[in-house]
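Extended Data, panel c. Modelled sequence:
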Amino acid sequence: MAALGVEHEIVECDPALADTAAFCAAYGYLPEDSANTIIVIGKSDPPRYAACVVLATTRLDVNKVVRHRFGVKKASFASGAQTEAITGMTIGGVTPFALPADIPIWVDSRVIERERLLFGGGSRSCKVVGPPELLTRQTQVEVVEGLALVPPGCLGSLDT
């Protein structure tokens, strides 16, 4: 990450509190500043993988946008075991900064609108905090409009 030339900090945490809601509650971060990295699979032969980065207050549109981007009939979230096999990281700690070079990183456009973001740190024992430039300076990142949806009934849509 130092090669990106963007100021950031590493925040240590209790691995039992690594999941977004628990981390935010325990350490005083806002869920709307939390960016989750989710590994998805396009069901093709061979299967194709991508990492999607979305705000914790949104929901990844895997059934429409992800499936369409892969150009397949079916796409799904990777299981915990698949995520670990592909990234070497466990869910709750997946970071978009240490992924294999052949994995595209699709970032919902809402993510880059935030001033400061909280990302997984590569393990469940730390998080990375910094500006969206941490993402946009990476070559395999593509910002995707509408990659995530605001769940119905969610107050305070980030679009307002």
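The longest helix spans residues 62-70. This feature is highlighted in the accompanying rendering.
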